[in-house]
Amino acid sequence: MAIKKSELYSSLWSSCDELRGGMDASQYKDYVLSLLFIKYVSDKYAGVPFAPIKIPAGADFKAMVALKGATDIGDQINKKIIAPLAAANNQLNQADFPDFNDAAKLGDGKEKVEKLTNLIAIFENPALDFSRNRAEGDDILGDAYEYLMRHFATESGKSKGQFYTPAEVSRVMAQIIGIGQAKTSSDTTVYDPTCGSGSLLLKVGDEAGTKVSLYGQEKDSATSGLARMNMILHDNPTAQIAPGNTLTDPKFRDGYAIKQFDFVVANPPFSDKRWSTGLDPHHDPHDRFKGFGIPPNKQGDYAYLLHIIRSLKSTGSGACVLPHGVLFRGNAEAAIRRALVRKGYIKGIIGLPANLFYGTGIPACIVVVDKKDAQARKGIFMIDASQGFMKDGPKNRLRAQDIHKIVDAFTKSLDVPGYARSVCYTEIEKNDYNLNLPRYIDSQKAEDWQDIDAHLRGGIPQADIDALNAYWEVCPNLKSALFTEARPGYVDLAVDKSAIRSAIFEHREFADFTAQMTAHFDSWRTKNAEALKALKPGIHPKEVIGKLSEGLLAHYAGKPLIDKYDVYQHLMDYWAETMQDDCYVIALDGWKAVPYRIIEKDKKGKERDKGWTCDIIPKRYIIARYFARDQAEIDELNVKLEAANAAIAELDEEHSGEEGLLAECRTEKGKVTAALLKARRKALAGELDAGFFKRYDTLLKQGGAGEAIKAEFLEAIPDFQEIFAIDDMLKLLDERDDLADAVKKAEAKLDAAAYAKYPKLTEAEIKALVVDDKWMARIDADIHGEMDRISQALTQRVRTLAERYDTPMPNLAALVADLETKVEGHLKAMGFAW
């Protein structure tokens, strides 16, 4: 059975637990990722002739498994696995791998043996068979590698998370430099001068759509090793990753000159204070600063940007992540910025949210450079995307909709008020070449003004109502249903404040709009449900979601009130949560729904059966389609069971406390039990008149004693009140137990019936369950939730305005005066006169 993406990620991340003790995340990542790499290349290339990665005999993962438990396991991994593997492949160096015999990090003796043995065992999971992994468009393992890198970066903190560029930022950069629209081939070159672990470089290569030549340089030797492994894991074994300082010793050259590339991207260290160490900027042998100026000694941002420009072909384009300071800082940087603008090299600037990057919390921007159209360029396209993000633990992250909105605005040069616009050079020159985004784009939300006249005289300002014009365009008569004119320029609420939502939701025009939106979704669902049911083994899930999401985005383009990017985000969220796992299962196994037992092991290794599940079709969908009546009967039993529990709780509360009638029937913790109730009843029976009690029991067995007979018993023997309370509780407990037993039996029967249904399902039934009942039903519910949000937003705004101006100032003053008079009267009545 195919492993789900989410399960692969979590199982690999759990391996990190084996090494957490005493080791920083930036260190144990090297061991986990190296082992992942060895497992992958062993599965994919061992025994394959002419493979891009050679696996020497005895230097694969199977040989590593054979070392489990060996007293010298760490030393043997270094000598028998890593050394031969590195020697056989020019792309690898032994220094790329950590020392598996390092006692300072792994412990010594038994501790090291157990730690490495346990770590190897995690990768022995049969589901982690990477021989079936295919990198063409859907690299499940490469994505898992990226997942681990992101988690390591998060755990490493600000000082050690710089080796990783967030995938979302990488995707934006990959799309805005235009490589996806260019005619690319293996001759197309892509370069990252500060490549870190290589994630940004790979994203650009993936965006090309064809195999391109990747080049990267990274000054941290351990991180450059990670980048080389990352290239291989993403099926780019020929990528060239060089170690070394890019500014002082650029490794990629044509003769003595710096090699030039078609595309260049980078996320260099922000404001590098040591950028010029080992370099004389005034005599740069590669003329990177000629014609622009020399960056400040303590601010290396423009040094990296100028290196990128020098590394671009005359037709090349690129993008660089830089701190916002490069847009407005003065002195030497102002002169460089002026020269860059005048030469037309800066195509665009995109302001990003704060706290996106692992090395810093400050906001950054993407500077897009383009040499091809530099002479003809008339201005710079600017985007302020600082407000679009989601919280993700200690960091912020761009959502799918944020990425798409940025790329759409940039690639289509869309003028979006408060978000994006093209700024001409004349305007930039008037601002003395200061490129700070707030000078050109006002992204701040409009203030919610308070109307003094409305506070003094009452009424809701007509201007506030007109600000909701998007709603009135869709529902023109709704406005007159909600408001009546009070005086020129002001209106009153025409309905009670408590009825605002129902007045909106039930209005004919809004109901018609909701119905139109329902029909609009239904047309998309009908078309795409058939396409999804046609999926076959071997599909590329990323292509599936790409086509599906773009179609949904286009389907909702131009629709009033509803934001197409919000709709798009619902689909992308569900994809990440569920659909992508389902599609990967279909890609490998086809339309199969096979339930399996959930077996858990305790600390002693004892197995426990925790029931069963089916990933692609959970039990609830089988029940809803085939056993709805059985489930309804169980639901009815559960309602009765809840009522019985409520009655027990009520009776328990009635007779609680030390003086309560059930005080003698409680445990030390105050719980009433059937055993104690029966024991107390037996004790009371021994104390009471036997004949009288026997008569009562007879009546009880015949159907119970009526209120009149109870009164007779109480008049004769008042202690029977406790007997009545005990019997009432026993009766309720019996009813509760009978109902609970009935529920248990019914659920077991339904569980067995559902389990037995899976082998009988046809492929058509499986497709209907997955596509119609599971996928489309959830997407439908999420998108229809947008309609509720629309009505709620209007409801809340109208209510806010109504409450704000509900009581005019004179009325408030009169109320205060009245209250002062009453308080003064009360004080005088109490003798506090003044």
Automatic annotation (TrEMBL):
Coiled-coil blocks: 627-654
Catalytic activity: a 2'-deoxyadenosine in DNA + S-adenosyl-L-methionine = an N(6)-methyl-2'-deoxyadenosine in DNA + S-adenosyl-L-homocysteine + H(+)
Residue ranges of every copy of the DNA methylase adenine-specific domain listed in the record: 138-448
Signal peptide residue numbers: none
Ranges of residues in domain N6 adenine-specific DNA methyltransferase N-terminal: 10-123
Short name of any one Pfam family annotated for the protein: HsdM_N
Domain of life (superkingdom): Bacteria
Top-level EC class as recorded in UniProt: transferase
GO biological process, one term: DNA restriction-modification system
GO molecular function: DNA binding; N-methyltransferase activity; site-specific DNA-methyltransferase (adenine-specific) activity
Similarity remark: Belongs to the N(4)/N(6)-methyltransferase family.
Record protein name field: site-specific DNA-methyltransferase (adenine-specific)
